[in-house]
Design brief:
Length: about 220
């Protein structure tokens, strides 16, 4: 191949590859549905938003909150992700990871627990939530420990739902909430980060297509 052809060909391959590698990840608006629980030294979150996320561990807060019957209260409670084999599964299309980080899910609620609820032992109230979850590639997947790799996906979401609070009467109208379950739904921004290897192959493909067009123009027979 003449040098005059090889130089533009090489430049085209490089430009096409770099352009594809530098393509930014795009955020998509998605619906979010999920459940969670917390308290009693444990927590769990499970949600779907195109991706499927699950995390649970026998580690967490000893209680969700406390209050006084008949007195308005505001409750805020975190349900946090816990990474590692046996604790977390994140499915992003055909890809999998067990590393989930971020601020987790913050549930908030404002309500007044009536005295009658203390006798029943449970109380249900509307809740709102905000969430930030980050899934990273596990570079040591299947080896019993985790080594965090590149970011695979991020989900920032918010919405509403219902919380069911377990009540323990401690006398004089006061109570603690040792445990709570949450059902929620809302919307979020999901960003899936393209793999560098896939982008490089895309760049090579674009460069190859450009080369084919270049060769057709360069070696096209002159019109008679």
């Amino acid at each position: 191949m003449p040098l005059s052809v090889r130089r533009p060909l090489f430049a085209l391959i490089v430009i096409g590859s770099l352009a594809s590698i530098s393509m930014p990840a795009s955020a998509n608006s998605v619906g979010v549905n999920g459940t969670a629980y917390g308290g009693n030294d444990s927590n769990e979150l499970s949600l779907s938003a195109t991706v499927s996320i699950f995390s649970a561990a026998p580690i967490g807060y000893s209680q969700v909150g406390s209050g006084t019957a008949g007195v308005p209260m505001t409750l805020s409670f975190w349900v946090l992700p816990w990474s590692g084999p046996g604790y977390t599964t994140v499915n992003i299309g055909s890809k999998f990871t067990d590393i989930l980080q971020g601020t987790g899910i913050l549930f908030t609620a404002s309500f007044t627990v009536p005295f009658s609820a203390l006798a029943n032992g449970t109380f249900t109230a509307p809740i709102s939530f905000t969430s930030q979850l980050l899934a990273y590639q596990d570079l040591t997947s299947g080896q019993g420990y985790v080594t965090r790799g590149p970011l695979m996906a991020s989900l920032v979401s918010n919405g509403t739902g219902m919380g069911t609070f377990q009540l323990t009467d401690i006398g004089n109208g006061q109570f603690i909430i040792p445990y709570a379950t949450f059902d929620f739904k809302g919307t979020g921004n999901l960003t899936i980060v393209p793999e560098p290897g896939s982008l490089f192959l895309l760049g090579i493909g674009l460069a190859g297509f450009g080369t084919m067009c270049w060769r057709r123009i360069l070696f096209r027979s002159p019109a008679v």
